[in-house]
Amino acid sequence: MSDLNNNSSMANASATEETFDPADIEKNKTIAGLAYLIFFLPLIACPDSKFGRYHANQALILFIAGISGSIILGIIPFVGWVLLPFFSIAVMVFCILGLVHGLSGKAKELPLIGKLRLLK
């Protein structure tokens, strides 16, 4: 029974983490981490890097979610204005999380928005 649980947990881990070439990760992990500050940086600095594109996609999704969420919450009177600081903190936490994952060479999806793909 424990083998079955171990196999299913390993399948879930592999479904959330993509595999990349270790040389690509080592060469481009700094640029991948910096993607969370300037999302298009890996697309310019290392356009052929699959690892860089992965983090550029995560950063682009986070950027779009942050801008659209801020606009929507800014339009809603009082309740939106009260929630806006908490939303901003959540976006900043996701940004730091992505930055740490990129700089450490990990390809973990961001919570809630990580499954979305805009860049291939």
Short description:
With 120 residues, the protein is an all-alpha fold. Helix 4 packs antiparallel against helix 5. It is built from five helices and no strands.
Q: Portion of residues in helices?
A: over 70%
- Please indicate the percent range of residues in DSSP E strands (runs of 2 or more): under 5%
Number of strands: 0
Termini separation: 38 Å
Q: Enumerate the spans where pLDDT stays under 50 for 5 or more consecutive residues.
A: 1-16
Global mean pLDDT: 87
Q: Give the domain tally.
A: 1
Principal-axes geometry comes out as elongated
Description:
The chain is mostly helical and about 120 residues long. It has one domain (about 1-105). Helix content is about 70%, strand content about 0%. It has five helices and no strands.
How are the SSEs ordered, and which strands pair?
Layout: H1 2-16, H2 22-34, H3 41-45, H4 50-75, H5 79-103
Descriptive keywords:
120 residues, disordered N terminus, 5 helices, elongated
